[in-house]
User: What shape does this take?
Amino acid sequence: MMDQPDKWQARFRRERIARQESEQLLEDKSRELYQANRKLEEQIRNQGSRLVEQEELFESVFHASMDGIILINGRGRIIEANHAALRMLGHSREIIIGSPIPHLIVEQDKETARSALRQVTSTGYCRYEAELIRIDGSTFPAEIVGSRALVGGKPIIQGILRDITQRRRALADLQQARDEAEKANEAKSLFLASMSHEIRTPLNGVLGFTEIVLDTELNAEQRQHLDLVKSSGDILLHMIDDLLDFSRIESGKLLLEEKPFSLHQILEDVVAMQSALSQKKGLALSYELSSELPIVIKGDRVRVQQVITNLVSNALKFTSEGSVKITVTCADKTITVSVKDTGIGFDESMTEALFDSFTQADVSTTRKYGGTGLGLSICRRLAGQMGGEITAHGNPGTGAEFIFRFPLAEPPAQTEHPDPAPPAPPSCEQALPRNRPVLVAEDHQINARLVVLMLSRLGYPSEVVNNGIEVIETLKSGQKFAVILMDRHMHKMDGIEATTRIRKGEAGPASQDIPIIALTASTLAEDREKCLAAGMDAFLSKPLNPGELETQLTEILS
Assistant: This one.
């Protein structure tokens, strides 16, 4: 049995071992805690460094932006602004922070800004333009794009400001340039219309008197010379019409009609008109229609005939021997008109150039065959307005083929007889009472003499006055007339005003309903509409054609 000292000594050893173990454990834990503290401190330093880097990066990007950037809290007040925004607005950071965004916007745009703020709050995005106010009171136009984000659970709106002064100035300059171009185009159109009128007026005398002289007895040489005069006048007239059509198409003022007509009748008319030239050159001119082609179609008869006439005329001009054939087919709601010739042809590489304005396949072609180089260009543009197209194929020396395609539009079923041919003119004794002459209102003496001569050859007596005032005074005198041939442009009082006054009864009730036919060198559609709106019954363009004059008189007086 262990005595008491041994017990205390054993207990002391156990306690010392336990204390040593505890001290070792404490030392180990302290070392671990120290190492953990060092790691934590290192992590804190690293994280702080990253936060600083991110903050510096944000600051750098935020302030380096060329666009102004402002940050707005949920109450619509500015909490931050970058350098570009401060420069743009002329404010310091201390002044702008805390300001409500509407304070920077001119009064008339404030409601727009409030509406945009509500929009970005609800949808997360907005874009608007407004005049912003600088610190010196001046203003500038700005584009403002807003987007919404959450930072720390709170809504933040980012607004990007962009000074659009240069953009507005560029748009204003562009609009001014467009306006000036439109004015120049309008001036060009007016100039061409005016020149057309001025050229047509004397040309009316040239062609009119030439036709009259050609109806007299002439020797072969005289007839040949006059034929050349008439041919040259017709070419000049065709060139004027081409220039006017080109100008109308360029300015977008050429409107197409939608009326029923017969394509078969158009082809007959075209062949009849071109037969003299084809016979003179010894060419076979023919046409063939597919059985699928409807009897009646709908569209602009005048423009369809213009395109086909131009293609046929073009083919005849460039064909010296052989034939020109027109073939019309209909398939898949498309009408195809082919004009094929055996003429000089052209190189396929020049196909598109043929349709360029003022261009022909070869410079020598213009010198040899003449023309403005506008015909095919006008035809292609007309085809385009109809929703169709014109293509061409050819080979040098073996001929060419021009193909005109346009959509088939059929009129209502009840339409049976489009474009009725005018009735055969009755004899002058039947058409016009001898005791009622034609009153001719014309201030151009040569043209007045020409009209009187044409009427005389048709068997119609006439009387001439020089302006609208004389028309009204003559009618007031009580003299009876069967019809008035009224020039559109006259000095003192023009034909429009004279017609308006006659229809109002200012020339006397007996003359209020007298038939009036407009005579004008203008071919503009608006002039025709003005004449008809004023109360005129019909419209004849100069140069005046005796056949058209007789037909019009017959229709008016029958």
Remarks:
- DSSP finds 17 helices and 17 strands in the chain.
- Residues 259-407 form a domain with the Heat Shock Protein 90 fold (CATH 3.30.565.10).
- The chain has five domains: 1-60, 65-163, 177-250, 259-407, 428-557.
- The first strand starts at residue 68 and ends at 72.
